[in-house]
């Protein structure tokens, strides 16, 4: 099934929007995850530092008093949103675990305790007893500044992912609404484009353009199309030859009409806006032409004009030739009518049995026609003029007028008829 241009354009816009949406969503999710991890890292460090600095906890760790440590942490854990809080000694063994109390006495895992035992607070993402987590470990010092324990505060990666997803969902909802709005806009946009293209496909428009160019170059009249700013849009070859306009199509379409044709009232904007005109005699570039001007409208908005023109001399030449042909046709009609009348008379005489009168009529007509033909042939050398005079004789006879030729009239030089002035 062949899809229309509107559907193709709509699908293309949709694919582009979906790709952009996917790229942006992925980028936003990764960036949100990075920011959440950074925020969680800062939060775990602050909590680890605060807990490790508590005097009660320091004293309990120094004394390795598990009950006291548990009592102190029972007041802290409910106030924290961390996934776990772990207290360890300087031997890297659990003294307290907020999630799994059975881990007390077992070694700390993760391999990130060496820096803490040297007195530094670290933030790492390692796999621990509960899984992969983002955690901060801070040392617990005694009164002499020796490291006697470790405080570890962490968030499981699954919890961080849930936080990231919850933050991204709101953004995705907004993006989805925006995407739906873009879908709706794209549909109406493609409909608008289709309407401006007169519901034609690009291939059909290309064919129309080629047909228009072929038609403009094939017609004999000069054609110039201009826009509403009097800038030239199209000039065909006939117009260029008739007005002596030189230049490429691109160069001509960048000019105003007054730059190609000597300014006349025919191209005055107030006159052009007022009405159209047909067969107006004008002077374009010192040449007399018969021009017509028609406005181009689209949705009640003026788009420009189309000007067509022809050489006046060629029109006059064609008019004269048509008049001459019309005259010849009229003479032939008269001669045919005269012959028909004569034939009717002869037929009537024969049917009535008056044969001698029919013979006399034929002889009379023949002698008269032959005498006229002999006179015209002897006194006039032009066949065209002879034909014209014979036509006049027949027409005079039809109208009952006696046509008499002056015996002294003659034209011994050939007559070639009407000639073009050029």
UniProtKB/TrEMBL annotation:
The gene is citA. GO terms for molecular function: ATP binding; protein histidine kinase activity. The keyword ATP-binding applies. Keywords: ATP-binding, Cell membrane, Kinase, Membrane, Nucleotide-binding, Phosphoprotein, Transferase, Transmembrane, Transmembrane helix, Two-component regulatory system. InterPro entries: PAS-like_dom_sf, sCache_3, Sensor-like_sf. Its EC number is 2.7.13.3. It is found in: Cell membrane. It comes from Tatumella ptyseos. It comes from the Bacteria. The chain crosses the membrane at residues 6-30, 168-189. This is histidine kinase.
